[in-house]
């Protein structure tokens, strides 16, 4: 009977046999490539929860909570990025966004322009620092949150936004219609010549444009008389690995190893070498770091230190030595999964311990009062010049210098935004007179101070929740008035003004200036003799 059925329906029978064989092979493939049932279990739980939970379920939040729960058991840098966070992250790395181009703060519920971004549409339209945006698209803008402001002012290039500003210096309101455009997010915050021969470059992130920005800055500073270089990587959280490599390459020669990566999957293992001669390999160099210097910042400072190319000054860096690979998901969100570790040329792993969880991992480095002290658990390594360096917990500087030891009074001034609010009020009444009297930054730096405003400042701070402490005020008085002066300089001359003033009370930078007159000069002479 069975054979008769086969003869009568041979095609159907062969299809059944083929289906069974294919089914077995598919199951073998699945078992081979997905050797557990956890993926199926997650899917089942999701379906059961959405079908039977006693209230309506926000499925998006449920899925995101599940993802975050999974990643909580991995390293601190394997993360999930919702769609909006992924978009912002991409903007940061690409070095641009679409908008009107202003930096702002919300002061007393009012949007206050800190600075129009150089070359952006707001600057071209005549928006000034200190302008207050009071109406957006015909609606009162007082009381908006930062998120509200960003949503209303950002938008696609070519679209327009209407808003009204109040300008304190004229006591008038002015309507503006501004066409949005691409706004550059510069990674070089400032580049200037200090004491006529020391190039100071502050790099705030490693984005797609960072190397080109530094090259442009160095070329100009070289023409202006640069003889030494300070690269400031303090509070630089990192960014694109290839940019860290190319920036290191600016200062290293002879095919020197910059960094290498190793992981469980060999396709993510790699080595990166210096290969371009850029003309900056022989300049005396100091790199400034602190506990906010992470990832790509540690690649650069680690390579410079291991090759004895320059000195590292400041505080121990963050200790983030894990490499993430981004994977875009179908809805526009993304995951960044750690695929390998990176190592400095001497073999140091910079990643510090994270076994006690994310909270302790992120808090400990910033709250540790002895962050300059070498941890006894760190592994010892030797630079190419046989100097002792340490691995397993960030980059330990060659010269340890705390940024400052500010009193609680000064900390509260910053926390309550007293400096800027006081300066804003002062400039509203005095800006035209200052511009007339101080025609350039050099005259301003040598001739201006706010010491006559001492009593007014103390009262203003007290009115803004900072109780006066005579002992602490007197200890920090120089710093306090220098910071006030820096805010005014920034208003009048941009970031150059801020840094020119603040560098004079920056202990770490001033240590670098002193070192140029001692160790680095000797290092350069030795380097030149070795090449003869």
Provide a descriptive summary of the structure in words.
The protein has 532 residues and is of the alpha+beta class. The chain has four domains: 2-74, no CATH class; 96-184, PDZ domain (Pdz3 Domain); 188-400, 2-enoyl-CoA Hydratase, Chain A, domain 1, CATH 3.90.226.10; 408-505, no CATH class. It is 43% helix and 21% strand. The strands form five sheets. Strands 3, 4, 5, 6, 7 and 8 form a six-stranded antiparallel β-sheet that branches. Strands 10-11-12-15-16-21 form a six-stranded mixed β-sheet, with helices on both faces. Helix 9 (241-249) packs parallel to helix 10 (296-306) and helix 13 packs across helix 16. The termini are far apart.
Please render the helix and strand layout as text.
Layout lengths: L1 H7 L1 H24 L4 H15 L6 H13 L7 E3 L1 H12 L1 E4 L2 E6 L2 E7 L4 H5 L6 E5 L2 E2 L5 H8 L6 E8 L4 E8 L1 E4 L3 E7 L3 E6 L6 H15 L3 E5 L8 H9 L7 E6 L7 E4 L11 E5 L6 H11 L4 E4 L7 E7 L5 E10 L14 H10 L11 E4 L5 E4 L7 E2 L7 H8 L2 H20 L3 H7 L6 H10 L6 H33 L4 H10 L2 H13 L1
Parallel strand pairs: 11-12, 12-15, 15-16, 16-21
Antiparallel strand pairs: 1-18, 2-9, 3-4, 4-5, 5-6, 5-7, 7-8, 10-11, 13-14, 13-18, 17-18, 19-20
Helix pairs in contact: 9-10, 13-16
């Amino acid at each position: 009977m069975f054979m008769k059925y086969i003869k009568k329906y041979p095609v159907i029978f062969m299809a059944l046999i083929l289906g069974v064989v294919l089914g077995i092979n598919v199951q073998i493939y699945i078992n081979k490539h997905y050797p557990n049932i956890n993926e199926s279990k997650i899917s089942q739980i999701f379906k059961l929860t959405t079908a039977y939970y006693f209230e309506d379920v926000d499925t998006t939040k449920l899925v995101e909570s599940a993802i975050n729960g999974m990643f909580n058991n991995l390293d601190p840098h394997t993360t999930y990025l919702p769609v909006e966070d992924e978009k912002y992250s991409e903007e940061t790395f690409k070095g641009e966004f679409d908008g009107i181009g202003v930096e702002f703060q919300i002061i007393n519920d009012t949007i206050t322009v800190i600075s129009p971004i150089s070359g952006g549409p707001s600057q071209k339209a005549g928006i000034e620092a200190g302008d207050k945006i009071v109406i957006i698209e015909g609606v009162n803008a007082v009381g908006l949150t930062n998120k509200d402001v960003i949503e209303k002012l950002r938008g696609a290039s070519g679209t327009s936004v209407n808003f009204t500003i109040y300008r304190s210096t004229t006591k008038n309101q002015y309507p503006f219609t501004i066409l949005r455009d691409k706004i550059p997010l510069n990674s070089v915050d400032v580049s200037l010549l200090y004491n006529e021969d020391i190039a100071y470059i502050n790099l705030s992130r490693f984005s797609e444009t960072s190397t080109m920005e530094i090259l442009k800055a160095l070329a100009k500073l070289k023409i202006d008389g640069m003889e030494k270089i300070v690269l400031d990587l303090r509070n630089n959280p990192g960014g694109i690995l290839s940019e860290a490599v190319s920036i290191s390459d600016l200062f290293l020669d002879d095919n020197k190893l910059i960094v290498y990566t190793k992981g469980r999957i060999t396709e993510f293992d790699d080595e990166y070498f210096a290969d371009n001669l850029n003309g900056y390999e022989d300049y005396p160099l100091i790199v400034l770091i602190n506990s906010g210097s992470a990832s790509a910042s540690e690649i650069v400072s680690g390579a410079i230190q291991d090759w004895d190319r320059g000195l590292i000054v400041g505080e121990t860096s963050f200790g983030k030595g894990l490499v993430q690979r981004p994977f875009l998901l179908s809805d526009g969100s993304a995951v960044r999964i750690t695929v390998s570790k990176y190592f400095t040329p001497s073999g140091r792993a910079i990643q510090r311990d994270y076994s006690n969880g994310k909270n302790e991992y992120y808090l400990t480095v910033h709250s540790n009062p002895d962050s300059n002290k070498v941890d006894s658990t760190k592994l010892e390594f030797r630079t190419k010049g046989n100097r002792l360096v340490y691995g397993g917990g960030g980059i330990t500087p060659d010269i340890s210098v705390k940024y400052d030891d500010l009193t609680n009074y000064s900390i509260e001034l910053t926390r309550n935004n007293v400096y800027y609010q006081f300066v804003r009020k002062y400039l509203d009444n005095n800006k035209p007179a200052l511009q007339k009297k101080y025609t350039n930054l050099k005259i301003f730096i040598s001739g201006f101070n706010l010491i006559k405003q001492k009593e007014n400042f103390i009262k203003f701070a007290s009115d803004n929740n900072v109780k006066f402490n005579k002992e602490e005020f007197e200890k920090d008085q120089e710093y306090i008035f220098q910071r006030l002066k820096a805010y005014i300089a920034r208003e009048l001359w941009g970031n150059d003004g801020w840094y020119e003033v603040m560098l004079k009370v920056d202990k770490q930078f001033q240590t670098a200036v002193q070192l140029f007159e001692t160790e680095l000069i000797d290092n350069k002479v030795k380097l030149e003799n070795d090449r003869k």
